[in-house]
């Protein structure tokens, strides 16, 4: 059994717009309970604002608390799961990359830090005053989506852009933005993450990625060290472990088959690799998770 990958079309109601879906969270939960009651991923971007409710949100095996003022961001492919203790309220937005980038030709989604790198936290907590402002922004987008007024798509896009700008300003409080903009290392990091995401099954050595980026392995390690204080090997290992966890928990394959899927020479080596980075064997991880 593979992890379900949900598409925006599965959530749409009447008079949809291609590539976008906006709803109140309570209505979204009520209408789509059968789609989202187990771990799943999406082929679109997701942004959720909670104004009420408590619980937990698991994203790629990291658990975050849900409470009023929390905002969550997911990129395509990330696996997540909600678990609520009290009734949630708020707003949820889905959209494809094309919905945003085809209209804003000079801007890309990766310019927003929460969509920029998997190393950046997928969560933000808003203070009370800012929550009120963002609540109004989300409500405006929600209202426009559920009406059929002239220039509806354009207004939704403008609302979405305003939301992302406001969230970025809160997300980057305390960060030297001039240093961030001028540092081309971050662009190399982004390319590296994309390359790893596509090639990590077969290519587990830094030299492959350095060659693809037309730089030396030493320089690539310097880039990764200065941007996120890790090594290239760590990034490759982390992506491999994440995929291993997804397969161990969400597939019915035996562990030897999972080792083969991830292109390890044998299960013993895979088990040793997994334990050295997680502190437990693949079997123990599967048992603990459930």
TrEMBL record:
Matches recorded under PROSITE patterns: HTH_ARAC_FAMILY_2 (PS01124)
Domain of life: Bacteria
Limits of the HTH araC/xylS-type domain: 190-288
Keywords: DNA-binding, Transcription, Transcription regulation
Entry annotated with the keyword Transcription: yes
Gene Ontology molecular function, alphabetical: DNA-binding transcription factor activity; sequence-specific DNA binding
Protein name: AraC-type DNA-binding protein
């Amino acid at each position: 059994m593979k992890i379900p990958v949900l598409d925006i079309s599965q959530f749409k109601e009447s008079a949809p717009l291609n590539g976008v879906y906006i709803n109140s969270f309570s209505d979204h939960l009520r209408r789509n309970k059968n789609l989202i009651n187990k771990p799943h991923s999406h082929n679109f971007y997701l942004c959720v604002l909670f104004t009420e409710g408590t619980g937990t949100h698991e994203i790629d095996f990291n658990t975050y608390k849900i409470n009023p003022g929390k905002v969550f961001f997911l990129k395509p492919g990330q696996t997540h799961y909600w678990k609520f203790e009290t009734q949630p309220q708020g707003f949820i937005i889905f959209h494809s990359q094309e919905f945003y980038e085809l209209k804003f030709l000079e801007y890309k989604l990766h310019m927003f830090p929460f969509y920029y790198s998997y190393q950046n936290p997928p969560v933000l907590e808003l203070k009370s005053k800012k929550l009120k402002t963002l609540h109004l922004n989300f409500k405006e987008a929600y209202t426009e989506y559920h009406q059929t007024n002239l220039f509806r798509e354009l207004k939704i896009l403008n609302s979405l852009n305003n939301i992302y700008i406001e969230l970025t300003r809160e997300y980057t409080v305390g960060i030297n933005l001039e240093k961030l903009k001028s540092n081309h290392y971050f662009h190399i990091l982004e390319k590296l993450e994309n390359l790893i995401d596509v090639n990590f099954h077969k290519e587990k050595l830094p030299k492959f990625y350095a060659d693809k980026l037309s730089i030396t392995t030493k320089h690539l390690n310097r880039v990764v060290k200065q941007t996120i204080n890790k090594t290239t090997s760590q990034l490759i290992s982390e992506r491999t472990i994440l995929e291993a966890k997804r397969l161990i928990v969400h597939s019915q394959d035996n562990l030897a088959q999972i080792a083969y899927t991830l292109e390890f020479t044998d299960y013993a080596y895979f088990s040793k690799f997994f334990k050295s980075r997680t502190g437990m064997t693949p079997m123990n991880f599967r048992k603990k998770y459930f």
